[in-house]
Amino acid sequence: MRSLISTWTAVLAVLVTVIVAALDTAGHTRGPLVALRAGIACVVIVFVGRLAGFVLMRTALRRYYDQWRMAQAGSRPRSER
Questions:
Q1: Using the 8-state DSSP alphabet, how is residue 1 labeled?
Q2: 30, 38, 45, 49: which could join 13 in a potential S-S bond, CB 3.0 to 4.6 Å?
């Protein structure tokens, strides 16, 4: 799951970088400003992807832990709970 999120984040970051660069170039923007805007767009997408991956992995681990805890509680005698 984690590698899938990382892959999609990288693909989306490259795609957004290309789109921003193309739009800025079509608007006759100077080269350094195109690079700056494309870089900022790439960093924002990578940050959002990392944050989404963190939240999804945390949720998955929390579910796994809760299921494990419920299984452990069911296997112990009532006097030890």
A1: -
A2: 45
**H or E stretch at 81:** none
For 46, 58, 59, the CA distances from 65, given in Å and listed in that order, are 28, 10, 10
Structure tokens at 68: 């494990």
Indicate yes or no: pTM above 0.85.
Answer: no
Encoded tokens for 54: 């963190």
Interacting residues of 37 by C-beta distance below 8 A, sequence separation 6+: 20, 21, 24, 29
Residue 81 has a pLDDT of 55
3-state SS of 12-31 is HHHHHHHHHHHHHHHCCCCH
Cβ contacts of residue 41 below 8 Å, gap of 6+?
16, 17, 20
Sign of CA dihedral 70, 72, 73, 75: positive
